[in-house]
Amino acid sequence: MSTKKRILLKLTGEVFLDPKSGKLSTTAIKNVITQIKRLENKYQFGIVTGGGNFFRGEQGKQLGITPWCAHQIGMLATMMNGIMINNLLKQQNIISEVFNAIVCQGFGMPISYDVVQNSLKEGKTLIFVGGTGNPFFTTDTNAVLRALQIGADEIWKGTDVAGVYSNDPHVDPSATFIKDLTYQEALNMHLGVMDATAFTLASVHKLTIRIFNIFADNALLQTIENKDFGSIIHP
Q1: 3-state secondary structure the chain
Q2: pLDDT by residue (tens digit) across 72-128?
Q3: CATH number of the domain bearing residue 125
């Protein structure tokens, strides 16, 4: 039986963008994959990615698209990101497999207990795309769901801010950084860093979530080596 620590890594879709131009770029995601390569002897990763680099919910509103349809487009966006990650992982000789919540032949394996467990036993990196397969669920909720399915020890959420704040630091410069908090505190404060469904599901199953800036130097390595890096949410 593997002794590797199992991590569900949730990535923002912005990791596929150039921060200056806003155009598609593989620079940041390649950096993340380089770190995964360095950690593969002791850690096994499942990966869930957002799709905001291709399509965001507010775009659906602007286009006059109903929420159901907008969610479907967002799920397809995560599929494109997952295919990119899979290809880049294989280029680094990291054995990986795409699991798709949407029935789409040729674009990932269907998600089932036996197939997922076999891939874990084979030491693969698992990439989950297509969300939960249903509209109205965020990729954060999907990340918690997949963490439970792979038996993850922790969830790591790589975002574009340093961790948890009392308010969106992009909007409110006076927002306070919060280093450590419980799920109940997060729910009481109505924090937007993850949705309430994700918090509740993680709380029920006593998962720990680390939230940090994925664009920081060696972010994954810092999450392991530096206890003061990012924020932690726990039962």
Answers
A1: CCCCEEEEEEECHHHHECCCCCCECCHHHHHHHHHHHHHCCCEEEEEEECCCCCCCHHHHHHHCCCHHHHHHHHHHHHHHHHHHHHHHHHHCCCCEEEEECCCCCCCCEECCHHHHHHHHHCCCEEEEECCCCCCCCCHHHHHHHHHHHHCCCEEEEEECCCCEECCCCCCCCCCCEECEEEHHHHHHCCCCCCCHHHHHHHHHCCCCEEEEECCCCCHHHHHHHCCCCCEEEEC
A2: 999 999 999 999 999 999 999 999 999 999 988 888 999 999 999 999 999 999 999
A3: 3.40.1160.10
State which residues form the domain around 166.
5-234
Q: Residue with structure tokens 């795309």?
A: 129
Structural domain total, the chain: 1
Residue ranges of the chain with pLDDT lower than 70?
A: 1
